[in-house]
TrEMBL record:
This is PPM-type phosphatase domain-containing protein. It comes from Hibiscus sabdariffa. CDD domains: PP2Cc. It comes from the Eukaryota. SUPFAM superfamilies: PP2C-like (SSF81606). It holds the Pfam family PP2C.
Length: 430
């Protein structure tokens, strides 16, 4: 084929200004109103929350704005909750490549959330403090919602179809059989508290340490099989919008997801948050810190989220989310609900970094310098663990070769500890 023929077959070049104009128009169409309300009652003073409405994928470009909402429920002190509130967002964003499109950014976000959670945990544990925190972290970009969580705080989605969907997975050992199996397989012990006379009381806990949760940030006084690797779910709403209720376990110990959603339908977000807290207090009393964020994702032409048409709930319920394993490895399901309410883009709950970070993590192999996939530090591969490097001499013979991206020595040690490949030096006997 001649050069002239090839030139005729190529699509005409589009001026850069035209491309930018198209992107701006697309962003404008896809950007709903985001309105929120917050309410809280303190019992121990260990709940914290983060709201940022002015984040930008491209600094200085309002068209690339996204919002972040997060709740941190601390335990054994407040240090871990405060540290995560102050550092987690920055650690997540540092793990996302620069100069990529919005769609690429959204696709990279689930992996960056994992890296950011693990990095934050490593940095906090280096401080030598023993507190811990649950985290429910929500990113809203247009109609796309991405939720990452460790612990037993929760995020639910209430759509205009009247169906309430859980966007997080509870990491309580009492309720989560998969997590109990993972903890015991990694070297932890799961059991109830023994009291005088040999009687067992209370919820299932992990020993050493006695933590009721299998995932958290912090908790240096328990085994490292209590991991900071989050469950991540990403969905896309239709332009009908929807409501998120993000709350600490002080809400969910008192109210079911359905009751919490129904209790505040038809109210503005600020009043809705107050009503959910009031309903939890009326149901159970103030037995724990109780924090609630209500976030409405509203079409541009609607000042408030309209009330849910209750008569359609039963008809719609079977169409919204198809049943799916929490540890689904199908990352490209892209399943659209029959009525167009919610599109599932991603869901993964595995605690294994090799599965969460993937094999295609970007690396500049030609320069001879590798960037750690977790802490984002550049260093020669001899100082860490490179892709497909196989077991190093000090690994146990039964260890499987690492089949993931480059990790520095510090992050490799963290990965091994979470998988039960070496004892945690900070572990104490219960």
């Amino acid at each position: 084929m001649s050069q002239a023929e090839e030139s005729r077959m190529k699509p005409p070049l589009v001026p850069l200004a035209t491309l930018l104009g198209r992107e701006l128009r697309n962003e404008k169409v896809e950007t709903p109103f985001v309105k929120f309300g917050q309410a809280a009652l303190a019992k121990k003073g260990e709940d914290y929350f983060l709201v940022k409405l002015d984040c930008q994928r491209v600094p200085g470009s309002p068209a690339t704005s996204f919002s972040v909402f997060s709740i941190f429920d601390g335990h054994n002190g407040i240090s871990a909750a405060i540290f995560a509130k102050e550092n987690l967002l920055g650690n997540i964003l540092s793990a996302i490549p620069q100069g990529i499109s919005r769609e690429e950014w959204l696709q990279a976000l689930p992996r960056a959330l994992v890296a950011g959670f693990v990095k934050t945990d490593i940095e906090f544990q280096q401080r030598g403090e023993t507190s811990g925190t649950t985290v429910t972290f929500v990113v809203i970009d247009g109609w796309t919602i991405t939720v990452a969580s460790v612990g037993d705080s929760r995020c639910i989605l209430d759509t205009q179809g009247g169906v309430v969907s859980l966007l997080t997975v509870d990491h309580r050992l009492e309720e989560n059989a998969e997590e109990r199996e993972r903890v015991t397989a990694s070297g932890g012990e799961v059991g109830r508290l023994n009291v005088f006379g040999g009687n067992e009381v209370g919820p299932l806990r992990c020993w050493p340490g006695g933590l009721c949760l299998s995932r958290s940030i912090g908790d240096t006084d328990v085994g490292e099989f209590i991991v900071p690797v989050p469950h991540v779910k990403q969905v896309k709403l239709s332009n009908a919008g929807g409501r998120l209720i993000i709350a600490s376990d002080g809400i969910w110990d008192a109210l079911s997801s359905d009751v919490a959603a129904k209790s505040c339908r038809g109210l503005p977000a600020d009043l809705a948050a107050k009503l959910v807290v009031k309903e939890a207090l009326r149901s159970r009393g103030l037995k724990d810190d109780t924090t609630c964020l209500v976030v409405d994702i509203i079409p541009l032409d609607q000042p408030v989220l309209p009330p849910t048409p209750r008569k359609k709930q039963n008809m719609i319920r079977s169409f919204l989310f198809g049943k799916k394993s929490q540890n689904s490895t199908n990352k490209t399901t892209n399943k659209l609900s029959a009525i167009g309410v919610v599109e599932e883009l991603f869901e993964e709950g595995s605690a294994m970094l090799a599965e969460r970070l993937g094999k295609d993590f970007p690396a500049d192999v030609n320069s001879g310098i590798f960037k750690c996939a977790v802490c984002q530090i550049d260093q020669p591969p001899a100082d860490g663990l490179a892709v497909n490097s196989g077991p190093l001499p000090f690994f146990p013979a039964a260890s499987k070769p690492w089949d993931g991206p480059f990790l520095c020595t510090k992050c490799r040690n963290k990965k091994d500890a979470m998988e039960g490949k070496r004892p945690n030096p900070t572990t104490i006997t219960a």
